[in-house]
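Worked example
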Amino acid sequence: MSVGMAAPRAPYACDPDRSRGRLVAEPPSRTRSPFRRDCDRVIHSTAFRRLKYKTQVFVFHEGDHYRTRLTHSLEVAQIARALARQLGLDEDLTETLALAHDLGHPPFGHAGERALDACLKDCGGFDHNAQTLRVVTAVEHRYPEFDGLNLTWESLEGIVKHNGPLTDRGGAPVGRYREHGVPVGIADYVKTYDLELWSFASLEAQVAAIADDIAYDAHDIDDGLRAGLFGVDDLKAIPLMAEIIAEIGAHYPNLDQDRRGAELVRELISHLIGAVFAEARANLAAVQPQSAQDVRQQGRAMIAFPPAMAGEEAAIKTFLYQHMYRHKRVMRVMAEAEQILFDLFAKYQVSPGELPPEWLAGAEADDEADRGRRIGNFIAGMTDRFALTEHQRLFDSTPDLR
């Protein structure tokens, strides 16, 4: 089969007609599958619209051409659908998970996540996957019969487990959760609706996860080049990038630097997608799963980079960490952004009346943990610009973040 050509639905794909359903039962749609409805609900959610003004690396007002959480999510969805189409997976579920994966991110990117995690250390900390689950199951208030979006089990599973199992079969945390445990938002929710934290997620979820990696690598290179944090030739330190740059030079010897960078990003995406597709085909051929449940019970992810490409992809992340995420300009702005969230959290704690009344409705006055979590939910939902506006309202001086 040619890469790019749609494959017939595979037996290991999630079948919307066999979905495990929703926590709150709803009549089926006459025109849309359960997974298509999930995707549409994500797109129409308030949290999704807010991604337009949430940071990837650069704060939203630094330039109209830099990525935001919204444009990143759209790029992840494009890459994920391309892979899903080639592998015969359910594209609607894949798109749902790609578009929903960042709904729980706070303002100011990873700096905001670090700040909220520190602020909420006595309330279980902050984890953006747990916050995404909280958004789609509780924080959104759009429907008369339930809080959240009432997504299907398969969508919720993918949101929580797209990076792999959180526990072993006995319930003991594994991987990055071994030290601090399963995030409180996830641990509490699965008591009501079991998402089988011990198993791998569907292939659709695995595809969305690796599409996130591919999109990050490509667009952070693009944004870093645009910001002048490094040049195309600096990327030759990475063997894969050196190879692609040489190929571009052979085909287009007189290309200007902007087009040279754009071509590099485009070719990188193609290389990574092709490598993942080949590895996935080989893994699936070896295991031959006959259902989505067969996939969940494998002891490893089926969607992955080949070992050699995994090393190259890790080298890209190392380069970006050194030349972009730790760049003194970015570090300065993110340190100031963290302080803005520290200030807001502390202010709301001592003056809860500064919060919109609906955020405290039903709260116990003496329950500090509950109040802290409510404040955390409120701040996590902020856009960059609203956080700045709130800080300007409550404090005499606010950093410009430029």
Remarks:
- The mean pLDDT is 93.
- The first helix runs from residue 34 to 43.
- Residues 262 and 378 are 38 Å apart (CA to CA).
- Residues 213-327 form one domain.
